[in-house]
Design brief:
The complex is a heterodimer of chains A (785) and B (162). In chain A, 28% of the residues lie in helices and 23% in strands. Chain A is an alpha+beta fold and 785 residues long. Among the domains of chain A are: 185 residues, Aldehyde oxidase/xanthine dehydrogenase, a/b hammerhead (Aldehyde Oxidoreductase, domain 3, Alpha-Beta Complex); 160 residues, Aldehyde oxidase/xanthine dehydrogenase, molybdopterin binding domain (Aldehyde Oxidoreductase, domain 4); 147 residues, Aldehyde oxidase/xanthine dehydrogenase, molybdopterin binding domain (Aldehyde Oxidoreductase, domain 4, 2-Layer Sandwich). A seven-stranded mixed sheet of chain A has the order 3-5-1-12-9-10-11, with helices on both faces. In chain A, strands 7-15-14-13-8 form a five-stranded mixed sheet, sandwiched between helices. Chain A has a four-stranded mixed sheet with strand order 18-26-27-28, sandwiched between helices. Chain A is globular and about 85 Å long. Chain A starts with 14 loop residues before the first helix and ends with a helix. Chain B has two domains: 75 residues, Ubiquitin-like (UB roll) (Roll), CATH 3.10.20.30; 68 residues, DNA polymerase, domain 1, CATH 1.10.150. By secondary structure, chain B is an alpha+beta fold. Chain B is globular and about 50 Å long. Chain B has a five-stranded mixed sheet, with helices on both faces. Classes of the chains: A alpha+beta (785), B alpha+beta (162). The interface between A and B is large, with 58 and 59 residues.
């Protein structure tokens, strides 16, 4: 009998290649005779391109070609589309100005590609790129999100730089509830702009075979099939069946590798145009300038409560920065992934949210780990905390009074979502116990005796994952379906090759999905190989983002495996000379009930491929099945984060001394992998709260364009994490899983700020709470006293 | 431009290569010698993805000119352990799932080896400070530190046994 591994911390199958330096990432791949591309990028935030003189670069020894945005336009390539149509309050469509593959007439952010130099070596291309002379007619830049509507107009299509003005919820009821409430807490906040910084920079290698007209693009993508669809159907780079996209090992994504960018697109176009293999690998400075950034909201919120501390209404007004162009999913992030989450874990009867999305002369902003949900959680968990302080109620007690209870499910929120299941108080209680919440005051006293300030902060988050029911997504403006596909190929010897349309770039799918399928068949995890990331191998898939892979992709595999088993029953019934209904399948064996007759899974596989004794009249040979799974609802992971900080008042440095997380992710396949996802998510959340900040100056120049300016969390910045789970399985997918990839990033920032503000005895401090800000806050506090 | 001939020892085997004056050790390892286990994360010495040892000292290969390694001993991830003969550090990274996307992992393993060569019995704080030059965006470092401490304990235990 093979050991059952669901719920077991199986070692990651993919790791052997990574720990020995044998991973195969895009930049590790080379093709004979390949040329190298380097992009010429705009040095200014907003300007008309008067002329581009590339003659000197073209004659530089070793240069094969210099291609410009003008040539892209001449070749009739389409614009890079945004895949989600939003409508404004007045019913009008969002403004979707063209997003050129390379700028031809005008540049709209520093770092925007406007030409590419292709040469024999990367160094030659880089030197020659310096020789491309661009004559700009500079225009005033609109770089700040809060000044966007008054600033210089960036696109002819978008007056006042407004992309859309969106709303959700009942405005009238919400305003009435606020007007008559016993108490209203008001809060203004900035959700700081972040740069994703996957440690592998984006890269691409394009190859074209003129004989077969086949174009192959190796690229750092989280969703190669979607990239192929966009590059063929919208950009019209090649016919869909002539473009193969391979996303090999990918070194982290966090959302930033979902999108179809200028560089990869231009590279594939150039390879086809010039009939040669061309490679491009971003330098880190290019990642800072031209990867899609995240967050960047300015928000005003009001929370109304009755005299007993029950929430009556929440009103939120947000301005969201889209950057200079609409990136692939940009429009959906501050709306359907933000406004819909503002109920959180609470029974707030009235919610109304307005979001103005604006263009600025900055890099495009799109989904970054959590995507909208961290912003929603930050608004809610900060304003709830502020209300608790104002009403002199313990923040945990105020939350408890308002939690949705297990008996309330399914729970329809006032902002469109219907939560299927959960037990929020169970996670809260477990987290409080693990964090030693009850004993905090003694630790605070002890710290005070050493001259240190301690604070503890709680955050209760919910998120919507498992993107998404296609019909619902379509009705809300999505340009694609959001199902997932899976294929389970049983080989003649009984080993299994699994193909999934999701993509693993650190999440450990090669292990988790192998566990899932191995458990279905009662075979060893070692006998299951998971294949992903190649449009040439799998029909179609939607990729990995929004914590969807196991909940949606795993469900497709579960369905495909069930089809294999069903066929196996029929083959077994034939071989065992009985009826299908008299056979049980368990532990990898098809057994005739109440007898000692059986066939192993491997014997059935062999019979399917060598069908000498086989029910050929009713069954086709072979044992390979596909399935598509379209979710019927989102999944709703939820949990509690508790942060305890100690602050040195002399320096303002915040040390996170304890960080406790209790999540409900539904059914868990591999606890070790899930724990790692939570750790990494929390690290990024702590980064946002304490360290990371993307800053543009008023001229639209990026001030934080290197690791010397943009503070990434390092090993000595972070604590050990205390992580646990509660489980209410998802009610509507066959795996019971809810998704775990983003939760850490979503729940943690408000817990940190709640802890710091408590330690300092102040109302608010903006993210990132750097030592300087904390030190100044302490000074202000002292002066106030 | 004329190329320079360089003779060096990489992972205890003799290598010769031709390079231009501006080529970094990282360029040569990855592009000339196909030792792609060493990764480029920033090119400015800030992320540690290209960590290698030079005569036993931990350096960023992106900050070392290839011509500088004439006559020196270079150590890369490829010299630490193969899939059928893993080093204890690699075993512990595997056991603790101290990696996710894997791109920073070779650098972290090389750095951990340098740490434990210098300080076989580090405290957790010492390990965190030593490895602060290696950025990892996936793990939050917790499982890496667990793996490092476990490797130190295991190696220390082995030493005591001798």
């Amino acid at each position: 009998m093979v050991e059952q591994t669901i719920g077991k911390s199986v070692q990651r199958k993919e790791d052997l290649r990574f720990i020995t330096g044998k991973g195969r990432y895009t930049d590790d791949i080379n093709l004979p005779g390949q040329a190298y591309a380097v992009f010429v990028r705009s040095a200014v935030a907003h300007a008309k391109i008067k002329s581009i003189d590339s003659s000197e670069a073209e004659s530089f020894p070793g240069v094969r070609a210099v291609l410009t945005g003008g040539q892209v336009a001449d070749d009739g390539l389409g614009s890079l589309p945004c895949g989600w149509m939003l409508h404004s309050k007045d019913g009008s469509e969002m403004k979707q100005p063209p997003h050129p593959v390379m700028a031809a007439d005008k540049v709209r952010y520093v770092g925007e590609p406007l030409a590419m130099v292709i040469a024999e070596t990367r160094k030659i291309a880089k030197d020659a790129a310096e020789l491309v002379a661009v004559d700009y007619e500079e225009l005033p830049a609109t770089a700040m999100v809060n000044q966007a509507q008054e600033g210089a107009q960036i696109h002819a299509e978008a007056p006042h730089n407004i992309c859309y003005e969106w709303e959700l919820g009942d405005q009238e009821a919400t305003e009435a509830a606020i007007a008559s409430a016993a108490h209203v807490t008001r809060y203004s906040l900035v959700n700081n702009r972040l740069i994703p910084n996957a440690m592998e920079p984006r890269a691409a290698l394009a190859d074209y075979n003129p004989g077969s007209d086949e174009l192959t693009l190796y690229t750092t993508s989280q969703n190669p099939h979607l990239a192929r669809l966009i590059l063929t159907a919208f950009v019209q780079l090649a016919p869909e069946h002539k473009l193969r996209i391979i996303a090999p090992d990918v070194g982290g994504g966090f959302g930033s590798k979902i999108f179809v960018y200028s560089e990869e697109t231009a590279l594939a176009w150039a390879a086809k145009k010039l009939g040669m293999a061309i490679k491009w690998t971003a330098e880190r400075s290019e990642s800072f300038l031209a990867d899609a950034h995240g967050r960047d909201h300015v928000t005003e919120a009001e929370l109304a409560l009755d005299g007993t501390g029950h929430f009556l209404a929440l009103r939120v007004k947000t301005t969201a920065n889209m950057g200079a162009y609409l990136s692939t999913f940009a429009s959906a992030v501050p709306t359907y992934l933000y406004g819909t989450l503002l109920a959180g874990q609470y029974k707030t009867p009235n919610i109304y949210v307005e979001v103005d999305a604006v263009f600025t002369n900055t890099a495009p902003v799109d989904a970054y780990r959590g995507a909208g949900r961290p912003e929603a959680t930050y608004v809610l968990e900060r304003i709830v905390n502020l209300a608790a302080v104002e009403l002199n109620i313990d923040p945990v007690e105020l939350r408890r009074r308002n939690l949705i209870q297990p008996g309330d499910f399914p729970y329809q929120t006032p902002v469109a979502l219907e939560y299927d299941t959960g037990d929020y108080e169970a996670s809260l209680n477990k987290a409080l116990e693990r964090a030693g919440y009850a004993d905090f005051s003694s630790r605070q006293e002890e710290a005070r005796s050493r001259g240190k300030l301690r604070g503890i902060g709680v955050s209760c988050y919910i998120e919507a994952c498992g993107l998404a029911p296609s019909r619902m997504a379509g009705s809300l403006g999505a340009g694609v379906g959001l199902w997932e596909s899976g294929e389970v190929r049983v080989n003649p010897t009984g080993s299994v090759t699994v193909l999934t349309g999701t993509h693993s770039h650190g999440q450990g799918h090669e292990t988790t999905f192998a566990q899932l399928v191995a458990s279905k068949f009662g075979i060893s995890v070692d006998d299951v190989e998971v294949v992903h990331g190649d449009t040439g191998k799998l029909d179609f898939g939607l990729g990995t983002y929004g914590s969807r892979s196991l909940a949606v992709g795993g469900s497709a595999l579960s369905k495909a495996a069930d089809k294999v088993i069903e066929k196996g029953y029929k083959i077994a019934a034939h071989l065992l000379e009985t009826e299908r209904d008299k056979i049980d399948f368990d532990d990898g064996e098809f057994r005739v009930r109440d007898s000692n007759q059986s066939k192993t899974f491997q014997e059935i596989a062999f019979a399917a491929y060598v069908p000498h004794d086989y029910p050929s009249e009713e069954l086709e040979p072979g044992l390979s099945e596909k399935a598509f799974y379209d979710p019927v609802n989102f999944t709703y992971p939820a949990g509690t984060h508790i942060c305890e900080v100690e602050i040195d008042p002399e320096t303002g440095k915040v040390e996170v001394v304890r960080f406790t997380v209790v999540d409900d992710f539904g059914t868990i396949i591999n606890p070790m992998i899930v724990e790692g996802q939570v750790h990494g998510g929390v690290a990024q959340g702590l980064g946002q709260a304490l360290l990371e900040n993307c800053v543009y100056d008023e001229a639209g120049q990026l001030q934080t364009g290197s690791y010397m300016d943009y503070a990434m969390p390092r090993a000595d910045d972070l604590p050990a994490f205390s992580v646990d789970t509660t489980v209410t399985p998802c009610t509507h997918n066959p795996v019971g899983a809810k998704g775990c990839g983003e939760a850490g990033t979503i729940g943690s920032p408000p817990a940190v700020i709640n802890a710091i503000t408590q330690a300092l005895g102040i109302r608010d401090i903006s993210m990132p709470a750097t030592p300087e800000k904390v030190w100044r806050a302490l000074g202000a506090g002292r002066a106030h006293v | 431009m004329s190329k320079t001939h360089v003779t060096t020892s990489i992972n205890a085997s003799l290598h010769e290569f031709l390079c231009e004056p501006g080529d970094t050790l990282l360029d040569v390892l990855r592009n000339e010698l196909q030792l792609t286990g060493t990764k480029e994360g920033c090119g400015t010495g800030d992320c540690g993805a290209c960590s290698v040892t030079l005569n036993g000292r931990l350096v960023c290969a992106c900050l070392v000119l290839a011509v500088e390694v004439e006559g020196m001993e270079v150590g890369t991830i490829e010299g630490i352990g193969q899939s059928d003969s893993l080093d204890v550090i690699q075993e512990k990274f595997l056991e603790h799932a101290a990696l996710q996307c894997g791109i920073c992992t070779p650098g972290l393993i090389v750095s951990t080896k340098a740490l434990l060569d210098e300080n076989p019995d580090p405290t957790e704080a010492e390990a965190r400070y030593y490895l602060a030059g290696n950025l990892c965006r996936c793990t939050g470092y917790d499982k890496i530190i667990r793996a490092v401490m476990d490797a130190a304990a295991t190696l220390g235990g082995a030493k005591e046994g001798v």
